[in-house]
Design goal:
The chain is mostly helical. The chain has three helices and no strands.
């Protein structure tokens, strides 16, 4: 179902446009501010400023002083000392 504007809504919209055209500063200043924010975010964002790295870059070398990592696990029964009564 297509919604169409009524004649009263067209009259209200035309009066709004006439009012905005009389005071262009009310339209131009917000457009400039919003355009500046969008332009800054799009053209000067951090994604654009980061250095380009190729998709298949060489893997980074690991340092030789990597600490030993202990993997948590359950204890074997054979590790316990035998109990004497």
């Amino acid at each position: 179902m297509i919604r169409r504007f009524s004649t009263s809504s067209y009259m209200i919209l035309s009066l709004m446009l006439i009012g905005m055209l009389r005071n262009l500063s009310n339209v131009v200043i917000p457009v400039l501010v919003i355009g500046g924010v969008i332009g800054y975010n799009y053209y000067l964002s951090e994604k654009k400023r980061k250095q380009y790295t190729p998709r298949y870059a060489a893997p980074k070398k690991k340092s030789k002083t990597v600490p030993f990592r202990v993997i948590n696990g359950s204890k074997d029964i054979s590790d316990d000392k035998p109990k004497f009564h």
